[in-house]
Structures are given as structure tokens and as C-alpha cells.
Amino acid sequence: MLSIPTLSLDDAKRVIAAAEAESSTQGQPSNIAVVDAGGNLVAHVRMDGAWLGSIDISINKAFTARAFDTATKDLGDLAQPGEQFYGIHASNDGRVMIFAGGIPLERDGQVVGAVGVSGGTGDQDQAVAEAAASAF
Asked: Considering the domain boundaries, does residue 77 fall inside one?
């Protein structure tokens, strides 16, 4: 039997709590999503006042970070015209997000999930996602 390390609901709650705290500090409400090792949604929070349109974006940022085991910000740099992954955002039925706010979550050097944040500027989303990942 193959066993794949993943994160728990308690892990996801801790990640979300850290993201909420950073988002509140910034004064910018966020949508925060956590996915497991399979890229499946474990938990999502839409803070009061966060944009409805950012729900799917946060979930898809988390999916993208796990699907490619890289931060969406870094993938975005590689997805610009003339770069090796130009056009990747059109793959996976358009679920791939190529802007800041998605970060893989690692345990013992292995990716076991990811967090995705959407609701502010790219810099704000990235800062919130970094705070969330640090709590993991």
C-alpha cells in the first residue's frame, strides 16, 4: 500500500488562523484556501468583506502551488511571454493561477499541501500566504 503524507484539518486551521491575522494587520480581507497533498480542498475561509470573485482564485492558487510544487509568484515569472511556461495558465481547465499568493506547504522536505490567498494586491496576497506557510 502506498502512503502519501498530507496535512490534517488541524494543520489547515492553524494555517488559516495565521493568514487571517496577517490579513487583518494589513486591513485587507482575504479568501484563504488550504489543499492537501492531492490538491483537494481541506478548508477555506472568506473573511468578512473579502471579494466573492476571489473565492475561486484562492482555491486555484492553492491547487496550482500543490500541482506544480512551486509558489504561484515564481510560476508567474516563468509564464511570461518568451519564457518556458508561457501559456500554462490555460492548462488544467484554466485552474492554474500565475500571480502571487499560492505557496506549497512542506513537512520534512516533502510537499504535503498548499495555501492560496486572494483578495488584495499581489504583494498583500503573498505576504498573507507567507505568514500562513510560516505557521505550518
From this structure: yes
Residue 51, domain member (yes or no): yes
User: Into how many domains does the chain fold?
Assistant: 1
**Helical packing angle, 122-135 and 9-26, nearest 10°:** 140
Residue 3 lies in a domain: no
pLDDT digits (tens, 9 = 90+) for 73-112: 999 999 999 999 999 999 999 999 999 999 999 999 999 9
* Cβ–Cβ < 8 Å for 47, 28: no
Mean pLDDT for 29-43 is 98
The pLDDT value recorded for residue 57 is 98
Cell of 132: 500562513
CATH value at residue 24: 3.30.450.150
135, 107 Cβ separation under 8 angstroms: no
The full length of the chain comes to 136
* 0.85 exceeded by pTM: yes
